[in-house]
């Protein structure tokens, strides 16, 4: 937010007051002040009209479904057409709450809330700043062999490493997401493609640009693995 230049503004107001006083002092007693009242009224009407236009533009900017991308957005809207877990509903809540209301993100919610491993609770962190999140849907976790998923869940350090690799500081819109981004975990994730063909480290974006109060979410069809962990395996 830009800081307003308060001192010059006050100086301009003071100068205006002096000029108005001088003009008032030179006015004939028979002069009617009503003639000068028309201009402020016109300015007020003009400002009112401008404010209305700004409100309409804000409403357009705030439409949570305006910038969605991905081949699965229609299926998502059909699955959750309204309510807390819908696109509109998620936009009203902080990230952790929004994710918990989405029926496609139940496993991810368990992982970030300490339910999967009590030593890994990222709720306060994820709700405390602005992020871009690549959120694996439940089918993505379901594709991991059960023994591997259990091993990951039981290792707090590894689980934290994987989860924070899905999070990038700041909110990034779909038309700016392509490129390389440094994750909260510290390693880079690469986004390629555009529109409905976005890929994140080889994982397809199911539906992206989903807004929450503090995050922009991209639902992905695969659990991402940091390069360091992939190399180790």
UniProtKB/TrEMBL annotation:
GO terms of biological process kind: cell adhesion; extracellular matrix organization
Region annotation Disordered: where it falls in the sequence: 24-68
Pfam families associated with the record: Fasciclin (PF02469)
Domain FAS1: 92-224
Keyword Ligase: no
GO molecular function: cell adhesion molecule binding
Gene3D superfamilies: FAS1 domain
GO cellular component: extracellular matrix; extracellular space
Signal sequence coordinates: 1-21
Keywords for the protein's UniProt record, in alphabetical order: Signal
Protein's name in the database: Fasciclin
């Amino acid at each position: 937010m830009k800081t307003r230049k308060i001192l010059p503004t006050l100086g301009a107001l003071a100068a205006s007051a002096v000029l108005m006083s001088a003009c008032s002092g030179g006015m004939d007693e028979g002069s009617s002040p009503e003639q000068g009242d028309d201009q402020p009224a016109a300015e007020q009407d003009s400002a009112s009209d401008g404010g209305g236009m700004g409100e309409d533009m804000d409403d357009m900017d705030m439409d949570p479904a305006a910038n969605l991308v991905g081949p699965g957005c229609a299926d998502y809207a059909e699955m959750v057409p309204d309510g807390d877990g819908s696109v509109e509903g998620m936009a009203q809540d902080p990230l952790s709450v929004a994710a918990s209301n989405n029926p496609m993100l139940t496993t991810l919610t368990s992982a970030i809330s300490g339910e999967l491993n009590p030593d890994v609770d990222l709720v306060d962190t994820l709700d405390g700043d602005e992020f871009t999140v690549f959120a694996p849907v439940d089918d993505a976790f379901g594709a991991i062999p059960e023994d591997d998923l259990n091993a990951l869940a039981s290792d707090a350090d590894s689980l934290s490493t994987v989860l924070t690799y899905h999070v990038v500081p700041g909110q990034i819109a779909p038309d700016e997401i392509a490129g390389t981004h440094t994750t909260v975990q510290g390693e880079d994730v690469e986004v390629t493609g555009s529109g409905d063909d976005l890929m994140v480290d080889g994982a397809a974006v199911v539906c992206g640009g989903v807004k929450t109060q503090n995050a922009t979410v991209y639902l992905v069809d695969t659990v991402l693995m940091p390069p360091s962990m992939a190399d180790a395996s």
